[in-house]
Amino acid sequence: MKIEDQTLEVKIWNHNDAVVFVYEHRHNATKKEDGTYTYEDYYDVLTAVPINFGYDDEGLTEEEKYAKVKTLADALADVYQYEPDCEMGVSIYMNTHQYL
Question: What is the DSSP letter of 83?
């Protein structure tokens, strides 16, 4: 595979047990008439990692699932902390108790 500029699609679903997002903190500066600036802050998602534990997960507690997802998020944060061009963030979405 050749590394080149491209946009890839990552599918996430409402039934995923967890999703880990990696995103950039961005802002747009707008100069007002009086010479001051206003800033619009937003996040630009770089990637999302969907996680499913399957239907036969009786051996994993909610705490164990969270620990596994957090391990992934911590590893991604450890790698992306060296990004030179912008401030990065990693967040976790857990879909617990989805079928009550």
Answer: -
